[in-house]
Amino acid sequence: MTMSDTHELELLKAKQPQRPSREMPVTRQHAPDNAALLAVNAVLHGGVRALTPSAALALQRRIGNAALQHLLTAGPAECGRVTVASYAQAEFRRADESVVERQTGPTVLRAAPKRVRASRVTLIFVPDEKIAADGKPMGVIHVRVGRREVATFEARGGRPRRVRDVRFRGKVFAPTPAGRFTLGPGVSAYSRDWGGLSQLAWGTPIRDTGIEVQYRLRRGRWRSTMRLNPPLSRGLILAAEQALGKTAIPNQWNLNDFGKIAFQISGTKSLIHTTPQNEEERLAGLTEKLEFSHGCIHIKPSDRDIMVSQGYLQAGVRVITMRYRKQARWGTPPW
Q: How many domains does the chain fold into?
């Protein structure tokens, strides 16, 4: 075969129609919408029986058929907050990362869920929308994206009437300020008030020497908590830990009154935050019981994680806080 024949053969091959590739196509599994979150929220607040058929279908797409069947058959007694939350949190963590999974068939790209833009979110806090099991008012945060309500979360603000807090000099329980505000960024909140336990950020490394408690500075050095203002003795810290059900001082600070992260309501001294008690209840798998604040808005740690992941808690979100509608009904605290 001459060089010219070889050249003509290559031209003929080039003109032949190309066969379709045998490689499996790449498909994209779109991130689920807020229906799955609403389904998880319904289970967390109302038990498995709170699921509607559409919510059950959305939850099935999110956590899988086997997990859903377990939730529906085990019942509220076995499927408490820990069980459901573990499913939800695991799925949220997996969905928060763009994961490429190569299987025997097609390659599935799992896109991270879209965080809602802050300018589209409005939080409306009604302090006495419900009556809790203790017979006292329970608030609700309504989340609106645009003009559509997408979720609700239980929350508790300040007491209906101002009353002095006998534990801390100069402090009072007061209703959460009503009005229209903007949410600030999530930060580790500090305060010398409320006994001084909020002087250290949540998660600060600490150590118990048996004589005193020390906390680690940014440069790696250790300093005694007795050098804080006000000073915190080992006995005071141990008593605070025992009030949370612990028998020893841990290696990380968990007594900050504002929880792991707090969001300030601009123009006020109020924050949206969790409490150390609720954080410990969640870790122990117990029901997160919301208590009244001195004017802030208390939310559950499990709800906070959902709200942050979806963009409901971020800087720039609009916040509308309502007044107590039935203030005369609750009388004068303390209760």
A: 2
* Range(s) of the domain holding residue 98: 27-110
For 130, phi then psi, to 5°, come to -125, 170
Q: Who contacts 234 (Cβ-Cβ below 8 Å, separation ≥6)?
A: 208, 211, 212, 213, 225, 249
Pick the closest to residue 122 from 322, 321, 318 (CA basis): 318
* Orientation angle between helical segments 34-46 and 301-310, nearest 10 degrees: 170
Residues 282, 312 within the same domain: yes
Quick one: pLDDT at residue 140? 95
Q: How many Å apart are CA 135 and CA 319, to the nearest integer?
A: 27
pLDDT in tens, 181-235: 999 999 988 888 767 899 999 999 999 999 999 999 988 899 999 999 999 999 9
Question: 85 with 123, same domain?
Answer: no
27-29, strands of its sheet edge to edge:
27-29, 107-110, 99-102
Beta strands in the chain (DSSP E): 27-29, 99-102, 107-110, 121-131, 137-145, 148-156, 163-164, 172-173, 179-187, 206-208, 213-216, 222-224, 262-265, 271-273, 297-299, 318-321
Query: Can you tell me the distance from the alpha carbon of 250 to that of 206, in angstroms, rounded to the nearest whole number?
Result: 8
Q: Is 296 inside a domain boundary? A: yes
219 lies in some domain:
yes
Secondary structure (DSSP) of 188-208 = ----S-GGGGGGS-TT-BEEE
The verdict on pTM exceeding 0.70 is no
Q: Are residues 105 and 185 in the same domain?
A: no
Judgement on whether residues 106 and 122 belong to the same structural domain of the protein: no
Q: Is 328 helix (H, G, I), strand (E, B) or coil?
A: helix
> Do 150 and 252 sit in the same domain of this protein?
yes
Please state, in angstroms and rounded to a whole number, the distance separating the CA atoms of residues 225 and 237. 9
* Tokens 């969001």 -> residue: 263
